[in-house]
Structures
1.
Amino acid sequence: MTERSPKRGFAARPSDPEAWVRAPQTSTDRTQRAEFTARLTIDVTPALRGRIKIAAFQRGLTVADMLRAMLDREFPADGRAAS
């Protein structure tokens, strides 16, 4: 019989946060984009969710695309803070 390797706890902190954040997730989901993506889950009120969905629809965007653009503006790759 093979011996199991010790597992890290569910909420264990990574030893190198930068490498952990940049590490690609292993996924067999064929619908995932070819570029590197990572899922982010947040909790919002039903009212806020509705406002977000309406705004995205009015702009002709998906909620995901609209929020990606907003996050790119707020957290630019060059590290400068949005004003």
2.
Amino acid sequence: MIYIKQNDFRTYQRRSVTRESGYHTIEGSTGGECIVKRAQRLQITRNKAIFRFHRRDMILIDLFDSGNGILAFGGYIHTNSPIKISFSLFYTLGERKYAFERDFVGPININDWNNIGFHKEISLDDGELVNEATLDMTIECDAGTTLEFISFDFGPITKTEFVGDTLAESFRQKTSMHIPYLYYLDTVNPIERYMINPPRFEIGRLVVLKSCNRCGRYLPINIENEMSTLSFSLHCVKRAPCVHSTFRAYAIQNMNELTTADLKQLPVEGNKIVTYYGHQLECKACKKFFVNAPLNPQRNPQQFKEDGLRRRALEILVNTLLNRNLIHFEFEHRTKKEFSEYIWRKFDYRCFKCGRRLPLDEMHLDHTMPLAYLYRLDESATCLCGTHNSQKRDRFPIDFYDEDELRRLSKITGLSMEQLTYKGVNHEVLKLLVDNVVWFYDEFLMQPDYQKVRDGIRTADKINDSLKRVIGGEVDLVTEYRKKTGKYPKSVTIVR
């Protein structure tokens, strides 16, 4: 007989909750349209390239009741080798000249698209007219590196809804994770629009820009690697492929500009671009500012923590079946040290994926082998930044890291390459679950928290469904329960 002690329900906060999507708010855009453009490609011949942008007579407006205006720069960059990016901004306001420098600290993925940008808040004490501004984007890399650019712009933020302090907190919350689309700059002009002495760009890869049903902008989606999202969150991940027409397929608005050869490179059905996972109708910025921010105060604490509850349930289930405590408590009891700090030091204080140095309070503990497939968080955990922890989600290491990264991860975590390249459920825990299936349905899922109904769905059903998705091909838990009891479990809803 398995018993669950009350303190077994203690846990550590894992990640943000996914919240509900918004509604159509702009005429002529449903979120189901797209345009297809070519990126601009450039091969770097030296170890450093400087891209200089210049603008005159820009009017700043007071944002967030702060007395400050904001100059912003951003776009999307693809690179085939490691790069380091820094920005230098020089501007004149009234009679005074100012200078500002910043390194880009966000993760940069190799052979993939990346969100790039920064912003500078500027006091309006000396006036609202920026007479002129020069921005240098410096990229350090190996000679021969190929870069591609799409949707770059440089200018003041003038979003009407940013006047007043309603969205101030949301804007400053995890801003680096929402660059550049939160600036509401232009997304369809060529990168050399404000560039001084632009290089001769070549024609790059095809990029799909999807419409947002709230702001009407066309923003890039990562059609070559959908799991690595850019401007829109995915619609169906665990239940892919997405079958919802508006979310998965986007009518091409500039079909007359595309050749037959272009269309052969894209996932096209008729006059639509088709995606595997589908994307939300609103962009991440609109979701952040106009969906999450207004709706979060309306949600009660139980609703707000619903996704976390399901994840904690799996964590408790796995540990209980293995007769183990949470690793944080076990490790501290055994070593008198904090588990999170141990992993942080083990990975040299850096995100394993992007190498960015992290303060301890910004580190995210990743299971390495996914909890969704019944793997316990233990000393083989991986140190990731928030962005890469969100990107990895419940993916297996082989689906997230390249071969060199897997070998390095094997050395750090102690997991073998065979373990790191395996894709499947944890059979040790699965066997224990089958052996204790009566306990699972009659006791574990009968816990009051799991029997609560939220939005018309019982939490126990969601836990049960999440297990069915990952083990359904190997064993049917309800069938196993019936073999032992001769009846259906009452803790979940059974459709007969």
